[in-house]
Amino acid sequence: MSPTRSEFFQGVRASLPIVAAAAPFGMLFGALAIDNGLSVGEAVLMSALVFAGASQMVGLELFSSHIAPWIIVLSVFAVNFRHVLYSAALGRRMGLMPEWQRAIAFFFLTDPQYAASEARADKKKPVTLIWYMGMALPIYVFWVAEAWIGALFGRLITDPAALGIDFLLPIYFLGLVLGFRSRPGWFPVVIASGLGSIAAFYTVGSPWHVSLGALAGVVVAMVLPPEPAKVEAIEVTP
After folding, report:
1. What is the DSSP secondary-structure string of 140-198?
2. Residue 184: which residues within 8 A CB-CB, separation 6 or more?
């Protein structure tokens, strides 16, 4: 197998746990979209264009409330603001990748995509467009297909929580967070993000708690003392 194909299929393998974990939520969105008055085609189109589970759920709730469009746009931006932080951090991992390639990559940027890219960089492996798209494309294609399936058959599952499938994605995200526990300042940043999100949820409300919790973690990361530089000993021979 050529290096390019090998790199692509490394990304595909990395996508499989995410595809499995996100499947119930993709289908749940399709079912909720039908319940909120969207057609099957509109549900599929929304998944294809927005491609952000939480934002799609928030959009559905706001569409059904018949509120001003600018409030919908602002609320969706609040949920997705963390992607601004993701792209800023991930941009430095992409080396000399042309801007048009970064633009394509950032359309497919999701929480697990960002975490997997950071983990790959930690292992001193390049975050190339080939690997990145190998991971991103299966997630995207299955997400859109799951919206279609959920729109057609979602009503057959009347209570996803009763089957426990609503807990799959939180478990996956918890695993992603724990995967970075060896990084300096991990614990205080996670605690600050968690407490900030909880406080925002009970004061400002959803969906603002997502971005405000992330900002709390960013602030703590900024004030923490920097990691001491590692100085390698150099043997000097007379």
Report:
1. HHHHHHHHHHHHHHGGG-S-HHHHTGGGHHHHHHHHHHHTTTTSTTHHHHHHHHHHHHH
2. 224, 227
Q: Which residue has the tokens 């060896």?
A: 182
Q: Is the pTM of this model over 0.85?
A: no
Please report, for the chain, the start and end positions of each structural domain, with discontinuous segments joined by +: 3-180, 182-225
- Tell me, what amino acid is at 117? S
pLDDT tens track, the chain, 238 positions? 677 888 999 999 999 988 988 888 888 888 888 888 889 999 999 999 989 887 888 778 777 677 777 777 877 777 787 788 888 888 888 877 888 899 999 999 998 899 899 889 888 888 999 999 999 999 999 999 999 999 998 666 666 556 665 566 667 667 767 777 877 888 888 899 889 989 988 998 766 777 788 788 888 988 887 666 544 444 444 4
- Two tokens at 226? 């920097």
